[in-house]
Structures are given as C-alpha cells and as structure tokens.
Amino acid sequence: MARETAYIGFGSNQGDRLDYCDRAVTLLGLLPHSQLIAVSSLYETEPMVDDRTNPGTELFLNGVVCLETEIAPRSLLEICREVEQALGRDHDQRHGPRTLDLDILFYGSRILHEGHLIIPHPRLHLRRFVLAPMVELNPEWRHPELRVTMKDLLDDLPPTPTVLRLMPQPNSRYGSRPACSERTPSA
C-alpha cells in the first residue's frame, strides 16, 4: 500500500489532559509503517454538547497530528480505538467525558462511509477546535467532499465558541516535536 497523508484529531477533557495528549501524540508517532510529519499546537475549548453527546463541563485540550502512513483506514481506526482504551477511555460512555478522543479527520482525499468509519470526519467543518489546528498545519488542505480549503472553512465559522491556542506543545515531554508551518490560525 502506498503512503497516504492522514490527519488525526485528538482531545481530552478528563484527568491530566496535557499528559493524555502527550501520550497520544507519542503513541501515534510510534506506529509502524508511518511517520509523524507534524503536530499542531494545543487548543483549549469548551465541550460541544448536542443531541448525541454530553462530554461534561470540563474544558478540552484539542489538537491535530499529520501522519504519512501505509496503515489502511480501517486498521488505523482500530489502532485509534486501542490507544483510547489504553489511555483510559470508557467506550461504554463514548459520548461522555473522555480521557482521550482520537478521530481520523482525513485519509488522503478518500471519501469513505463504511459503518463507523466515516472519512472525512462528518462534522469537522463545523468545529473550530478541529479547523484551527488544521489551518495551523495545512491551511490549503481541501476537504474532498466540500471542495473548500481548511482556511476558508474556518473563516466561514461564527466567532464562538472560542478556541484558545496554548503552550506547551503536545509531545513536548516525551520526545522531539515535528515542525509545523509558521502560520498562526485565527481563533
């Protein structure tokens, strides 16, 4: 299988959020047949509550990693679920507060609808906490279904909820952090 560029969103709003984000980035960087290309800054955000989810009231730390990988999308999803579980995610309460949430946002320009595997992520274009780190990593990345860049999607969102870019960076305690682009997203 040829290498594909995959973007994976990560977030935590339970326990030591920074530690869970660091560990997730580190584990994703150790995947076989893959290379961690870039890691966004961390962004602190309010939880999004809708008719499907109730993640509690604690603020989230969110970010995005960019991988070049030969791992097939279905296998990558299974690995993400295993990492979540290893870091304490309660899958019986999938839509509640979470130690770690990993979502495959994009897998190259593929469009997949296979049960629980939906790529691109079906709500990423509505989420500032996903688009801000995506713009930081690759503002010109085009959504394969909407055919719009990440920057344009972010610019089209209303200004709330607020997304606050934070320091320190994820993966700063467990190894070197791959470089990201120098562009700073609008929050």
Quick description:
By secondary structure, this protein is α+β, with helices and mostly antiparallel strands. The protein contains four helices and eight strands; from the N terminus they run βαβββαβββααβ. Strands 1, 2, 3, 4, 5 and 8 form a six-stranded antiparallel β-sheet that branches.
Amount of beta strand: 15-25%
Please report the distance between the alpha carbons of the first and last residues. Answer: 37 Å
- Tell how many strands the DSSP assignment holds: 8
Query: CATH superfamily assignment?
Result: 7,8-Dihydro-6-hydroxymethylpterin-pyrophosphokinase HPPK
Global geometry: globular
CATH class: Alpha Beta
Oligomer: single chain
- N-to-C order of helices and strands: EHEEEHEEEHHE
What would you say this structure looks like, in words?
The protein is an alpha+beta fold and 187 residues long. It has a single domain, classed as 7,8-Dihydro-6-hydroxymethylpterin-pyrophosphokinase HPPK (Alpha-Beta Plaits, 2-Layer Sandwich), CATH 3.30.70. It is 23% helix and 25% strand. The chain is built from 4 helices and 8 strands. The longest helix is centred in the middle third of the chain and has 14 residues.
